[in-house]
Amino acid sequence: MKKSKKLIVLAILSALCLLIVPGCKKGDDKSGTGGEGKTIEITHWYWADNSDYSAKMQEIAKTFNETNGKNIKVKAEEYPWDGGGYSETLFTAAMGGGGPDTAAWKLTSTPLFVANKLLAELDGFINNWADKDDIEENLWDVMKQAGGSDKIYVMPWNTQVLYVYYRPSMFKAAGVSVPKTYEEFLEACKKLTRDTDGDGKIDVYGFGMRGAKGGQEPWGSFIWARGGNFTDFTTPEAIQGMQDFIDLFKKGYTPPTAPTDGFNEIIANFKSGKTAMTIHHIGSSSGMVETFGDDVDAFVFPAGKGQWTSMGDTENVIFESCKNKEAAFEWVSYLATGKGQEEWCITTGNVPVSKRVQAMDFFQNNKFMKVSIEGAPYAGIFPILDTTTEWINTVWPNTVAAALTGQKTAAQAMEELQKGLYGDKK
């Protein structure tokens, strides 16, 4: 009789557990595997630049759901990028206690979300992950830099790496080889600047400089090549990098419109044959090939004392509110190094973060993709601070324009850039 009563009590307690304890309900298995037929649901937010990308993400989620073998079901929900409004929508939802378990991401959003304790720390998962070394060590460092600490809150997904486009026919005509060093690059800018029709006027410039907004990314390569960095713009090395940038313009090796040239202008100048080299990423490659056929190629911005190029990114995160972080990590790691990585990068043309995927023939047989991959170990980002947006949009273009046109010296310009980004602190 006592045994019977005990069984009844245990049955009642079990029933109460199912009603009131979240860990016992279906779809909330914290082990990361469904087990015993349970389904774990993960909601993922993403944006897509076009309908093909959207369809591909839905296909990737479907394949993952069918093949993960752990009863994890991802529900991929698309939200518009809306000029960056996506991140604001995500923040509002997360702060309100809603939002997804995982989401597509831009590194620039990381400090705000980390400061509000909205993102899950991933170090524990990554350190025990068999594919950790399949991703370049440099990229893990960039993830830490974005979060402002030694912890990782962001999972790599795909990137865009800046490199130098050039015209092989122009190099041949000027007797110039592809630069292997920074000094050779500066010399090539000089030699490729020519009067090709004999009228006494320069009609081809060696380098298509971007002096307007967005130009800080290629400019950064000059600073690092001289041994500077973005911690202190006022070092002798960083100032020399700025002087090199100024000299290319003052000596006439760039178009005279360089101080106001933005993306559209540098691409138009290159396509029209006005410049022999310019800097952008693989997103411009199809248009270049359409214009020039085989007469366009690329190389990594070469090393001097240092080496750096700019990296654009799209990553993924897991939210702290996610109740099944192990399952969520299965999903974001599938996008980072699994079949999802292959499918997404093949469709979008972005650079894979997985070394295994980078080595696939599809990517190695594309010369622009191959150069992007070669530059990836040196790719990075600018510091993400409260001042960064204003610095990029206003301080950098205005200051550099003044330096190019002789209104400020290299040292004065770098002092102003330092103060604009870091205030009075060094």
Descriptive labels:
2 domains; D-Maltodextrin-Binding Protein, domain 2; seven-stranded mixed β-sheet; alpha/beta; single chain; three-stranded antiparallel β-sheet; 426 residues; 10 strands
Tell me what you see in this structure:
This protein is α/β, with parallel strands linked by helices and 426 residues long. The chain has 2 domains: 33-160 and 312-376, D-Maltodextrin-Binding Protein, domain 2; 163-300 and 385-422, Periplasmic binding protein-like II (D-Maltodextrin-Binding Protein, domain 2, 3-Layer(aba) Sandwich). The chain is 46% helix and 12% strand. The chain has 19 helices and 10 strands. It has helices at residues 2-20, 51-67, 85-95, 110-115, 123-127, 137-147, 168-174, 182-191, 216-225, 236-250, 263-271, 285-292, 325-337, 339-348, 355-358, 361-364, 367-375, 388-404, 410-422, and strands at residues 40-46, 72-78, 102-105, 155-161, 163-166, 277-280, 297-299, 309-318, 351-352, 379-380. The strands form 2 sheets. Strands 1, 2, 3, 4, 8, 9 and 10 form a 7-stranded mixed beta sheet that branches. A 3-stranded antiparallel beta sheet has the order 6-5-7. β1 (40-46), α2 (51-67) and β2 form a beta-alpha-beta unit.
